[in-house]
Design brief:
The protein is α/β, with parallel strands linked by helices. The chain has 13 helices and 17 strands. 39% of the residues lie in helices and 18% in strands. The two termini are 37 Å apart. It binds pyridoxal-5'-phosphate. Pyridoxal-5'-phosphate binds at residues 101-103, 106, 132-134, 184, 188-189, 217, 219-220, 245. Pyridoxal-5'-phosphate is lined by residues 101-103, 106, 132-134, 184, 188-189, 217, 219-220, 245.
């Protein structure tokens, strides 16, 4: 029986798996059972910011495991507090709620918005077309793509979508009593599509006029991925709530919601919660991640390496008409091709480099934030061979 046969026999088939049997990871590389090394340029879908087996994460996890792996949220817990202090200090937000995943963070944000809106006599929450918020029912309600929603309705009431990057649609749909607008500053699953300056400006102006809550989904673009703490910083937006997850737990399940002082009293004890959210081992790993990633020198090196990568990709774009556009910020990059991206990604894999295909024609590159010139050059050489 092959490993694929075993997978087929065991699981609900919700994933299209890569044909690799990984033994372990080392830095930016994955090593399979037969000893082959793969350069991982999508870092577990934007999770492994420090690559694999980073000594700071490993040591923090080991230390915490020996103390306690779980207490429940009935207890005050030092790893949670230390993590919260770092998040608030570096983000400028005032309160945080910790959970386990991105979709849970968005569910929590929807609940917080609804609770706030009831007190204000507001209704109506919007997501964006082409967005991705997660797989739970609230998150799906913020989305429009049939690929994710088909067969799961009915969805939440009083939730709709605004055409992403269409200021006229914003103007049409936002009402004086709108409760909130959720958005990704750089749509990830949607193909690395940044918010346009015009759309961001109209969104900010309408929010100033009507006072709805602006909620940034920074689950993929946050915590250093774009060379800044959050992706929305590139567009001059100042959201009321921010959801985050993916890289923050160093590969362990961790996510959360950041909010402003104005929203601090919306929730009281018992109104929201989770058994595992803010797990101490995940928070210990998160503290190690944030200590490294949020160091200004570290993010400066991400920005410099990313500038080099974009420059080289732009040169390839001029040389190869099969590249339609290169988009993104920092280490969140979409190479939009004139053909389907999946076969190109497959060829790149055959040559020992892992990238991801999304939005039909986009090669998505999400390197570990620790990837430097050497890894970039290896990726570029392989990518060029594969599109020649
Ligand atoms: C922007 C965005 N929001 C939400 C999610 C959902 O996160 P999770 O898979 O941790 O539930 C994702 C996952 O890819 C994402 O990219």
């Amino acid at each position: 029986m092959t490993t694929t046969d075993r997978d087929n026999a065991l699981f609900f088939q919700t994933y299209k798996r890569l044909p690799l049997e990984v033994d372990h990871g080392e830095g930016c590389y994955l090593i399979t059972k037969d000893g082959t090394r793969y350069l991982d340029m999508f870092s577990g879908l934007a999770v492994n910011a420090l690559g694999y087996a980073h000594p700071a994460v490993t040591s923090a996890v080991e230390k915490q495991i020996r103390k306690y792996t779980h207490l429940s949220n009935l207890f005050l817990q030092e790893p949670q507090m230390a993590l919260a202090e770092k998040l608030l200090k570096h983000s400028g937000y005032d309160k945080v709620f910790l959970c386990n995943s991105g979709t849970e963070a968005n569910e929590g944000a929807i609940k917080l918005v609804r609770k706030w809106a009831k007190g204000q006599n507001r209704r109506g929450i919007f997501g964006m077309t082409n967005g991705f918020s997660g797989r739970t029912m609230g998150a799906l309600s913020l989305m429009d793509k049939e690929k994710y929603r088909d067969g799961y309705g009915p969805f939440l009431d009083e939730i709709g979508v605004i055409e992403f990057n269409d200021p006229a649609d914003l103007d049409r749909k936002i009402k004086p009593d709108t409760a909130a607008v959720f958005f990704e500053a750089i749509q990830g699953e949607g193909g690395i599509v940044p918010v346009s300056p015009e759309f961001a400006a109209v969104l900010a102006a309408l929010r100033k006029k009507y006072g709805f809550l602006l909620v940034a989904d920074e689950i993929q673009s946050g915590i250093g991925r774009t060379g800044t703490m959050f992706g929305f910083e590139h567009f001059g937006l100042t959201p009321d709530l921010v959801t985050f997850a993916k890289p923050v737990g160093g590969g362990l399940p961790l996510g959360g919601i950041l909010g402003t002082t104005a929203l601090a009293d919306v929730w009281a004890p018992g109104m929201h919660g989770t058994t595992f959210g803010g797990n101490p081992v995940a928070c210990a790993a998160g503290n190690a991640v944030l200590e490294i990633v949020l160091d200004p020198g570290f993010l400066e090196s991400v920005r410099m390496n990313a500038a080099y990568l974009f420059e080289r990709l732009d040169a390839l774009k001029h040389a190869y008409p099969v590249i339609r556009e290169v988009r993104g910020y920092g280490y969140m990059i979409g190479i939009d091709m004139t053909t389907e991206s999946a076969p190109i990604v497959e060829k790149i894999l055959q040559k020992g480099v892992l990238v991801n295909a999304t939005a039909h024609t986009v090669v998505r590159v999400l390197p570990p934030l620790v990837a430097g010139r050497e890894e970039i050059d290896t990726f570029l050489a392989v990518f060029e061979q594969c599109i020649q």
